[in-house]
Design goal:
This protein has 235 residues and is an alpha/beta fold. Helices cover 48% and strands 18% of the residues. The structure holds 2'-deoxycytidine-5'-monophosphate. The site of 2'-deoxycytidine-5'-monophosphate has 14 residues, from helix 2, helix 4 and helix 8.
């Protein structure tokens, strides 16, 4: 963990459905930081591909995707009602649409493509320019912000993760089966951690958090203790 001023960059990486976004959003809320969901950017590209027939009959047309890359306009805009940044694709709010099972099915394959990753990493670094940011994803501590002030690597038992995801999607009114969710999580873990470019792995200076049996409150008191220590070391 690096000493630094209190304008921190906090990088949170980990497997799918480990509760990274809940954890990151809550930290951002407490510290009045900006939360950025980097996975949403890869999901937005995937939605773009599905809509523009770059993914057709379950096959990704890489050549077509490379040609269209410059046309993909992803932005985050602040919603003062939800007090969150929401994802936009060509000025359309796609925050909900990118959580669909269809997008989840293809997003890991899309995020393996090097040109996509370069474009996303560049955009993510610009978002982190002013610090005071919490960003979650797979390569935030290793690639996007290797000098982040605080890096957390989140893990949780697979069955717990599948159960959380299942409940979350049901709550959103989506029709899904538990088996389908579990299969998707296992598949994405495999693709995300074995891909050649920026695979999911723990940065050497990251702190592991296994939140399998922890409430959000417990996770917050754990992380706030760490952040307080960063402040103490600094002064
Ligand atoms: O966090 P998530 O499950 O919404 O992310 C969706 C996918 O995007 C995930 O399966 C892998 C990819 N991803 C990535 O490759 N790098 C990131 N920094 C964030 C997500």
């Amino acid at each position: 963990m690096k000493k630094g001023n209190y304008n921190l960059i906090i990088a949170i990486d980990g497997y799918s459905s480990c509760g990274k976004s809940t954890f990151a959003k809550e930290i951002a809320r407490i510290l009045h930081y900006t939360y950025i969901d980097s996975g949403a950017m890869y999901r937005a590209v995937t939605l773009f591909c599905l809509r523009n027939r770059i993914i057709e009959n379950d096959v990704i047309n890489i050549t077509k995707l490379r040609k269209s890359l410059k046309d993909i306009k992803i932005e985050f805009k602040y919603n003062s009602n939800s007090k969150q940044f929401e994802t936009y694709l060509d000025d359309e709010n796609i925050e909900e649409k990118i959580r669909s099972v269809k997008v989840s099915e293809f997003v890991s394959q899309i995020s393996k493509i090097s040109e996509i990753r370069s474009k996303m990493v560049k955009a993510q670094r610009i978002l982190g320019n002013k610090k005071r940011i919490v960003m979650d994803g797979r390569d935030i501590g290793t690639v996007v912000f290797p000098n982040a002030d605080l890096k957390i690597f989140m893990i949780a038992k697979p069955a717990i993760r599948a159960e959380r995801r299942y409940k979350e999607l049901l709550q959103k009114g989506m029709k899904v089966s538990y088996e389908e969710i579990e299969k998707n999580i296992i598949q994405r873990d495999h693709i995300d951690s074995t891909r050649n470019i920026s695979p999911l792995k723990k940065a050497p200076d990251a702190i592991t958090l296994d939140n399998s049996d922890m409430t959000v409150e417990e996770q917050m008191s754990w992380i706030m203790g760490i952040i307080q220590n960063l402040k103490k070391n600094e002064s």
